[in-house]
Write a structure and sequence with these properties.
Keywords: Oxidoreductase. With about 300 residues, the chain is of the alpha/beta class. It contains 9 helices and 12 strands. It has one domain: Luciferase-like domain (TIM Barrel), CATH 3.20.20. Helix 5 runs parallel beside helix 6, helix 6 crosses helix 7 and helix 8 crosses helix 9.
């Protein structure tokens, strides 16, 4: 059993389709109205049908008042970390502290290369991500001038600022042992997706994060565990994990908290079905909160 005792958070994962802007903004307005905590937006600049994630996040923050927004996860190879740090801090200041930053090492390397980015090996991508975490922290610091000399990223007398409006969560969407070790030492949160990291593998990955955190003198419970989940809330019988009636969703999400260590769930529905998102926000989320509170109590 792995329950870190953290407060629960819930969000949505709208697809940034360029031909569905009004529908996206309706969804995030509903998330804001219904009290969801987060909106996560995937970042694939090479996908021709997608809006630019950072432009969309700015609009989402402008159209909402309380929900927090984050890239799920930012494509580091196409976004220099010093500039991304400034963009993140700017969005946080403009929104009054409602921006978080999740980073990915990169994927779909031929597409990244086609846009002028580096086509990295796994080791190179991991090193670049590790350096980026340090660069971003420096760019959020109170220092007048910062320097950094890495293999992939460099700063030479850069001037940090503006300061974020709050301590932005720096989350990593990673899965390898080396990067999970970095996460345990340096990051504020972990953002896996159920499609890549199903529940049976979670305990071993938590163990690697926790081992690294404790070796660095950190409390593993200080690290947020954000799970991107996908499926369908139906009126019929179960057809698999997170595909079935409301009661199944409540049971399975509750077990993910109490047995699998996750504390935050970001839901993506097929076709961004607004009825699915409404069921998620209005029915599933409060029921999971209640079930976990009862079991913990």
């Amino acid at each position: 059993m792995t329950d870190y005792g953290r407060p629960l958070q819930f969000g949505m994962f709208p697809t940034p389709d360029a031909d569905r802007v009004d529908e996206i903004l309706d969804l995030v307005a509903m998330a804001d109205d219904e009290g969801l905590d987060l909106v996560g937006i995937q970042d694939h600049p090479y996908q021709k049908r997608f809006l630019d994630t950072w432009s969309l996040m700015a609009v989402v923050l402008a159209r909402t008042t309380r929900v927090r927004v984050f890239p799920d996860v930012a494509c580091l190879p196409l976004r220099p970390p010093a500039v991304m740090a400034k963009a993140a801090a700017s969005l946080d200041v403009i929104s009054g502290g409602r921006f978080e930053l999740a980073l990915g090492a990169g994927a779909f390397w031929p597409a990244i290369g086609g846009m002028g980015g580096p086509e990295c090996t796994p080791g190179e991508a991991a090193s670049a991500l590790s350096e980026a975490v340090e660069v971003i922290r420096l760019m959020w610091s109170d220092e007048k001038s910062v320097r950094y000399e890495g293999v992939h990223h460099r700063l030479s007398g850069a001037h940090p600022g503006p300061r974020p409006a709050h301590d932005i969560g720096l989350w990593l969407g990673v899965g390898g042992p080396r990067m999970l070790g970095l996460l345990g030492r340096e990051a504020d949160g972990w953002v896996p997706s159920v499609s890549y990291f199903p529940p049976p593998v979670l305990p071993g990955l938590h163990a690697r994060i926790d081992e690294s955190a404790m070796a660095a003198g950190r409390d593993p419970a200080a690290i947020q565990r954000i799970y991107n989940v996908f499926g369908a809330i139906t009126d019929g019988p179960s057809s698999g994990f997170l595909n079935g009636p409301f009661e199944q969703w409540v049971d399975e999400l509750t077990e993910l908290v109490l047995e699998s260590g996750m504390d935050t769930f970001v839901f993506g529905a097929e076709g961004d079905d607004p009825f699915q998102h409404q069921k998620w926000a209005v029915e599933v989320v409060p029921a999971v909160r209640e079930a976990v509170a009862d079991r913990r109590g």
